[in-house]
Amino acid sequence: MIPFDWVEPDTLQEAVALLDPEDTSVRPIAGGTALMLMMKAGVFTPTRLVSLAKIEKRYSEIRLDHEGVLHVGAMATLSDLEQSPHVKEHFKVIRRALRTLSNVRVRNVARVGGALAHGDPHMDLPPLFAALGARVVAIGPNGTREIPVEDLYAGYYETTLAKNELIAEAIVPPLNGAAAAYSKATSRSADDWPAVNVGVRVEMEDGRFRQLRIVVSAATEKVTRLHRTEEFLTGRKDNDRERVHQSLAIATSEVSFLSDAHGSVPYKKELLRAHLGRALIEARP
Amino acid sequence: VNQVGRSIPRLEARAKVTGRADYVHNMRVPGMLVAKIFRSTVAHGKILSIDVSAAREIEGVHSVVTGEDIRKIIPNPYFGPAFHDQPILALDKVRFVGEPVAVVLSTDPHIAEQAVQLISAEYEELPAVFDEVEAMTSSAIVHDELKPAGTFADLKHLAGRKNTNITLDYQLRRGDVEKAFGEADRIFEHTFKTGQVLHVPLESHASLAEPGHDSITIHTSSQTPSFVRTEIARLLGWPENRVSVRVPFLGGGYGAKVYVKMEALAAALALLARSPVKVALTMEEQFYTISKHATTFRIKSGVDKDGRIVARACDVYWNGGAYADIGPRVAQKSGFTAAGPYDIENVRIDSAEVYTNRPPAGALRGFGIPQLVWAYESHTDIIARELGLDPVEFRRKNLLRDGRPQATGTIMKDAAVEQVLDLLVEKMNWKSRFDHGDNASGIRRGRGIAIGFKASISPTTSGAIVNVSADGSIVLYTNTIDMGQGSDTAMAQIAAEVLNVPAETVKVVHGNTDVAPYDMGTLGSRSTFHMGNAVRVAAEDARNRLAALAAEVGLPAGTNYDVKEIFRKRYGMQAGNVIGTGTYVPRYTPPDPKTGQSDNVTPFWMVGGTAVELTVDTWSGDIYIIRMVNVVDAGNPLNPKIVKTQISGGAIMQLGFTLYEDMVFDGGQVTNASFADYKIPGFRDIPNMESDWVTSSQENGPFGAKGVGESATFGVSPAIANAIHDAVGIRLTELPIKKETLMRALRAAQGSPLPEDE
Predict the structure, then answer these.
(1) CB–CB contacts below 8 A, A to B
(2) B298-311 pLDDT, tens per residue?
């Protein structure tokens, strides 16, 4: 390992200032669960790591505002999110998803901000948060902006964040009676990276799909929202099995699949059909 | 209180959970250099040049060592238990991607690692062979000449063979197979395959060699300290007493740490550098060190009108990789059970191990048996179903029972084959109606059963020393290695039972060739039986000597005197000790080399079986195991709690080899050489599982005990495949069972096969 600088700023603003918009060898480090693997494998050699461990405590808090909106500080661990009483009560889907995410030791260390900012399409939180209509608050040298999670990804390991922009918090709108599901397929062990994952948020009215958000990842280059599939089902009866079945064909056609060690494209298409099909049938308030 | 049969907690448990237990991986000594390895990037090639100049110039590098440097202190630096074929560092040729070619030494592992990146080598690539069946006839020859080590009599005839990749062509002939096939009512023939997989001990191989005055001490994570001492002494041309081998606890072994692994390299480097040298592999380097054989098994059976198997022919091909390690013995010692635990009059077995240009394969929990059971229990199930017979009833009709000859001619004894099957059937409530689910939900249910057996490797030797101190406390010296299986506890229980003390008070000194006697190795589930017998004999010897001493000082025989009193009376103070020794080597008749026949091929048999109930999601191809029951023949269990964890541990390990684990190759290169891409089972993969055993005293075992470390691995894979077939009618013949393979078979069966890829 080649020596590098390690800095521990006390505030998020200082952390932003210590990043370099041009230099890819300078990176922020939160839980480090992904970054350390990249460093160990020799695919990332830092010159400086900006640790976020000592920034303001408020960036680790998880709170529910009076409108039922969930605010998750970027430095909250995945375990904090899993154990949060607000999540237990109002966002059961997040809790269920987290329990299948890697293992307890990783969840105790990995941070929500890192899980959203890393850009690896195999991760669990991005498609789920995108399906829930969540957005992030990003802080850079020129101020603050909000980015919907579905627009956060530009490509494989690429985000729309600038190199000196940091996620401060994630904002998840209330479900307000909508059903939500997250489903993933692993082709090897249960704690493997998913071959396909899918997040679904469904609002129902009089036995019909009033509004849907369907987001797919893992089999793709980046988090992908399935607009055509959503439109195809909107306003249709939820017990119209034939329609749901037809929607699966649309879903597989609007996803750009990649084949890899987790499986071939035809296999992943079948997985998406199975998991989206089950999610649409089983996603009930 | 009986010491044997008590579920006492493991003696070392507290030391381990409080971080006090020693592991070589954590060891440091003053002046220690660490080694980092530069590895081959080609599968088969002549070494043209190795450029280490840039690496040598890095500040902090002590030295860079190649195979030619090793030759300066060890003129013939080839090692191995079966063949002297493996160079300490590659010489003249490389034979697999990942083979060690050069080493950088430094006090700083990061500097050594960085310097390794600056080494380059040029090779003239040679034709390579990767498949075990192709290697039988390939013109690509991995080794120019076979060099048997001479240790094993049954390999001597191979000396000097050229132009072949076959390291052993074991054969067994019983009855007249061809005639019986001619007379059979039905003939069935299938081919089964298994992939190459890894042991994955959480402590990787680590060896630390300290040169002394005319001596060397090697601290190593080894399952076979006695063998390491003999082999290092042979390589150096030294008497054995100048080589000390010490083994603390191991962070898992599973067969990865048998014979010589990093010890020869550490010893050679320490002697070259004249400093202590530690070679500690990373987890990822396990992919280039030792593995479990990939196999192809063609199996053919003839069945008569009554559903009796009258003949079975087995052709097994074992992919040994680039160096033989113990592979030829796997082909033979497991090969002779390839026809399964069935009473078959006519049997032919041809079991060949071959060199290929893959990482070497050796012993892994089961020593080849799980690959064989995979084939014969899948095959047996197919036959039963095609004959319209219940799979259990078909097995029962053909079962090999005590008193009947096994394929080698050895009469079966103390092998609870039928009792294991009975308990599985009872626990699964096999005779009840079974709901296979429906097609509308896409969830189908199935159940499967499989049993297997194994012979203990023979003949092997174990020795032990029991030392009774003047205060009556007891120290047991043994070279059996506790690698997590609980052997220290079991051995203490045996000594304690004989000497009538609580097992918790016995101190076990293990893994030190300077003080403990010879042991063949902690492998093949042999320790409980072999070392257990040696410990029992040693403890009885100590007890007899104590009694003699008591008589000498005038204590009447049979009285309840305190041990301290004997010593005090004899020496006038608390002084002296009594030493008991024990050696155990079972009787054995070497098999006829042409027919494999022997009247005593093994001292004991192991039996294990698994029954599984599962669902298959026909939409997603997911397999969900609802219930897995593992039952073994445990003899008379010395420590029931430890027996139980051996059963669950073995079953979980084989579950990984069944569903997840596979070394994926591209032109000899492992493409998933990390634990992000080679997946072992995690907690969420552990099914609802029951571990149980039948108690059937092993007459010649210590207090009726026998080994159980491998038995639960036998039936897992075929039980799962048989259950999948029961659920969806699809027969999978290759391990691991990949979900994509199942999905493709499901779609093909539904008339809409999936395209190759897009």
Answers:
(1) 81
(2) 999 999 999 999 99
Using alpha carbons, select from B362, B368, B354, B367 the residue that is nearest to residue B167: B354
B620 CB neighbours in chain A (<8 A) are 185, 270-271, 274-275, 278
3-state secondary structure B75-106: CCCEECCCECCEECCCCCEECCCCCEEEEEEE
Strands A208-217 and A196-205: antiparallel
Beta strands B346-354 and A208-217, pairing class = unpaired
State which residue of chain A sits closest to B745, comparing Cα positions.
A267
Please say whether the beta carbons of B452 and B373 come within 8 A: yes
Of B114, B676, B754, which is closest to A267 when you measure between CB atoms? B754
pLDDT score of A285 more than 80: no
Kindly list the residues from chain A whose CB atom is less than 8 angstroms away from the CB atom of residue B672: 261
**Contact call for residues B36 and B92 (beta carbons, < 8 A):** no
Note the pLDDT tens digit of each residue in A109-124: 999 999 999 999 999 9
Nearest to B447 by CA among B458, B439, B459, B435: B435
**Residue ranges of E strands in B604-703:** 605-617, 623-633, 665-666, 669-670, 689-694
Which chain A residues are Cβ-neighbours of B669 within 8 angstroms?
none
Most distant CA pair in chain B, distance? 91
Closest partner CB to B682 (pick from A187, A190, A259): A190
Which ipTM did the prediction report? 0.94
Q: What is the mean pLDDT of residues B474-497?
A: 98
Q: How confident is the model at residue B703 (pLDDT cuts 50, 70, 90)?
A: very high
What residue of A is the nearest CA neighbor of B661? Answer: A188
C-alpha distances in Å from residue B539, one per residue of A14, A15, B329, B548, B708: 70, 68, 33, 14, 23
CA distance A219 to A240: 27
- The helix or strand, by DSSP H or E, that contains position B464, with its residue range, turns out to be strand B462-469
DSSP code, position A221: S
Helix, strand and coil content of chain A, in percent to the nearest 5, comes to 35, 25, 40
**Do B683 and A189 count as a contact with CB atoms less than 8 A apart?**
no
Mark out the alpha helices in B402-504 (DSSP H runs).
Answer: 417-428, 487-499
Q: In angstroms, rounded to a whole number, what is the distance separating the alpha carbons of residues B76 and B143?
A: 16
Query: What is the C-alpha separation between A250 and A215, in angstroms, rounded?
Result: 13
Beta bridge pairs of residue B78? B87
pTM above 0.90, yes or no: yes
pLDDT category at A284 given cuts 50, 70, 90 is: low
**B291-292 vs B361-362, strand pairing mode:** parallel
Q: Are the beta carbons of B647 and B694 closer than 8 angstroms?
A: no
- Put simply, whether A258 touches B (Cβ < 8 Å) is no
Task: For residue B674, give both structure tokens.
Answer: 């990390």
- Taking alpha carbons only, the member of A28, A17, A217, A257 closest to residue A123 is A217
Q: Helices marked H in chain A — which ranges?
A: 12-18, 33-40, 78-83, 85-90, 92-99, 104-107, 112-117, 125-131, 227-233, 241-254, 265-282
Q: Chain A: residue nearest B618 by CA?
A: A274
Query: Whose CA is closest to B424, among B723, B726, B627, B630?
Result: B630
Give the pLDDT mean for B485-509: 97
Tally of CA atoms within 13 A in the half-sphere of B100 that contains its CB: 29
In this predicted model, what pLDDT tens digit does every residue of B249-297 receive, in sequence order? 999 999 999 999 999 999 999 999 999 999 999 999 999 999 999 999 9
For residue A282, list chain B residues with Cβ-Cβ distance below 8 A. Answer: none
Structure tokens at B392: 């259990």
Q: Is the pLDDT of residue B561 over 90?
A: no
pLDDT at position A102: 87
Residue B687 touches partner A, C-beta closer than 8 Å: no
